[in-house]
Design a protein that fits this description.
11 strands; six-stranded mixed beta sheet; mainly beta; OB fold (Dihydrolipoamide Acetyltransferase, E2P); five-stranded mixed beta sheet
């Protein structure tokens, strides 16, 4: 179907299937094509002097995968780890990365007319990873470019494409 060669989501082409998940009270959506699998949370092996959002690494079928706590990275009210806490395993530019979230909700098909551009904010609020806001019934989804977030220089995970 040619989906592999797609360009990252932009507000003009932000329709498609999204995996929705919760971080605190908010609900987020990411492009389903970036998702490799969803796993229950297991305590990763810690790495000394790692930033607080990097929980450690796990061995996933022979691949060492860094585990990022998105709740910490995005400054959300971090709930305790419980039975609903999961790791979304992502494939970002050929690298496998795990993202800890409070819970996964569902997969939704979002048409372009449901997605509104993210509001302009002052420089204090980093909106560069937010591609849009979708209202679905009484739910408000914050759509996120997970590839851009995980590729950010401060994450130190993935070399910037040059």
């Amino acid at each position: 179907m040619g989906a592999r060669g797609r360009t990252p989501a932009t507000p003009t082409s932000a329709h498609g299937e999204y995996l929705t998940f919760r971080l605190g009270a908010e609900e987020y959506g990411i492009d389903i094509l970036r998702v490799q699998e969803i796993r229950s949370y297991e305590q990763p092996t810690r790495i000394a002097n790692a930033p607080s959002f990097l929980k450690g690494v796990v061995n996933l079928r022979g691949v060492i995968v860094p585990i990022i706590d998105l709740r910490v990275k995005l400054g959300c009210e971090s709930a305790d780890f419980n039975a609903f806490t999961v790791v979304i395993v992502l494939n970002i530019r050929g690298r496998v990365v795990g993202a800890v979230v409070d819970s996964v909700s569902d997969v939704m098909e979002l048409s372009h007319d449901l997605i509104k551009p993210a509001p302009a904010m002052n420089a204090v609020v980093d909106m560069s990873y937010v591609t849009g806001i979708a209202n679905v019934g009484d739910r408000m989804l914050i759509l996120m470019d997970i590839q851009a977030l995980m590729s950010a220089a401060d994450m130190g995970l993935i070399e910037a494409m040059g």
